[in-house]
Amino acid sequence: MYFVGIDVGGTNIAAGVVDENYKIVATAKIKTRMPRPAEQIIDDIALSAKQAVANAGLTMDDIESIGVGCPGQIDFEKGVVNFSPNLDFHLVPLKAMLEERLNKKIFIENDANAAAFGEVLAGAAKNTKNAVIITLGTGVGGGIIIDGKIYRGHNYAGAEPGHMVIKESGVRCGCGRRGCFEQYASATALIRQTRDAMRRDPHSLMWKLTGGDLKKVTGHTAFDAMRKGDQTAKRVVKKYIDYIGCGIVNLINIFQPEILCIGGGICNEGEELMAPLRAYIERERFSRYCEVQTKLGTTSLLNDAGIIGAAFLHLSD
Predict the structure, then answer these.
(1) Which of 70, 88, 220, 291 has its Cα between 20 and 30 A from that of 314?
(2) What's the distance, Cα to Cα, between the start and end of the chain in Å?
(3) What's the rounded Cα separation, in Å, for the pair 317 and 313?
(4) What is the pLDDT of residue 302?
C-alpha cells in the first residue's frame, strides 16, 4: 500500500511515495518558480506526484491517496487554500483542482501541521498522542497534535505559535503585531540580534569570523564566537535562548504535551542550545512540581517530515 505526500514551499515542490511503514521509497522535486499563476503551480504539484510515482516504479493505480502540505491558512474540510502569502494563493480550491488532474482522493493541510504530524507518526514524537512541534527558521512555524489528531482551530487558522507576543511593544512582525515570538526566536531574529551586537561592539570576534561583513552573519555566528570565548557573543546566545525558552514555556503551560520538539538549522548547535534551554524551562514552567513533565527534544525527520505527514493526512480526516 502506497501514499503520496507533497510538501509545497516557496522554492521547491517536493513529492514522495511513502509505504505503509512510513518509508519514503521515491521522490521528485520541481522548482516552484514564484511568482506565477496558481493554475501553473498546481499543474506542477500534480506533475511532481506523477514523477515520484514513476520514480518508484509504480502507477497511479498503486496509490491510495495523496496529501499536500501547503503554506498558509488551509480549510482542511473544504480543501481550499484561503490565503497563502508565500504562493500568492487566495481562496484557491486546491483539493478539487488536484483531484481533477490526478483522479485521486486528495487531502490538503498547512505545511507546518503536516510536518508535525509526520514527526508524531514516524519521528521524534513517535508513540505520543499529544505533542507540540515548532520550527525555528525564517519565521517560527509550528504544529499541535492533540489525541493523535492535528489541532486546526475552529476556523483552520490555529497552531500559529510564532505569533504569540512575548515582548509587548517589541519588534514589529509581518503579521502586524509587535513583539511576536518569531521576531525574537527565529533564525532570522538571531541574525538581526547578532548584527546589532556587532555594531555595538566593534572589537567582537564576530567581526573576524565574518570577515568584517555583516551580510555574512548566519544563525551560527554568535555560537561560533561564544565557543571561542567572545563575551558579546555569549550575551547574544544567552538572550536568544531566553527568548526561545519564554515562548516554549508558554506553550508547555497551555498544552502540557508529552513532548515538545524544536526543529530548524539552529538545532545543529546541540547541547549548547538544548542544555540551557532545558534549564530555563525547568526553572520557569508552571508544572515544576508535577511528577510527569513535558519532554524537550529535537525533530528527527528533517525535510522528510512534511512529505510523510502529508502522505498520511487521510488518518487525520
Answers:
(1) 88
(2) 18
(3) 7
(4) 87
Per DSSP, 173 falls in state: P
User: What pTM, to 2 d.p., does this model score?
Assistant: 0.89
Dist CA 220 CA 40 (whole Å):
37
Cα separation of 20 and 62, whole Å? 12
User: Using alpha carbons only, what angle is made at residue 154 by residues 18 and 106, rounded to the nearest 5 degrees?
Assistant: 30
Instruction: Tell me, rounded to whole angstroms, the distance of Cα 158 from its chain centroid.
Output: 14
Identify whether the C-beta of residue 232 lies closer than 8 Å to the C-beta of residue 204: yes
Give 11's contacts (C-beta < 8 A, 6+ positions apart): 31, 32
Q: Are 28 and 52 in contact (CB under 8 A)?
A: yes
The pLDDT confidence band at residue 316, using thresholds 50, 70 and 90, is confident
Q: What is the pLDDT of residues 272-291, one digit of tens each?
A: 999 999 999 999 999 999 99
Scored b (16 or more CB within 10 A) or e, 31-52 reads ebeeeeebeebbebbbbbbbbb
Q: For residue 11, what is the DSSP state?
A: S
The string of pLDDT tens digits covering residues 183-215 is 999 999 999 999 999 999 999 999 999 999 999
Q: Quote the CA–CA distance of 82 and 71 in Å, as a whole number.
A: 11
- Say how far apart CA 262 and CA 299 lie, in whole Å: 6
Please tell me the distance from the alpha carbon of residue 292 to that of residue 289, in angstroms, as a whole number.
Answer: 9
How do residues 291-313 score in pLDDT, each as one tens digit?
999 999 999 998 899 999 999 99
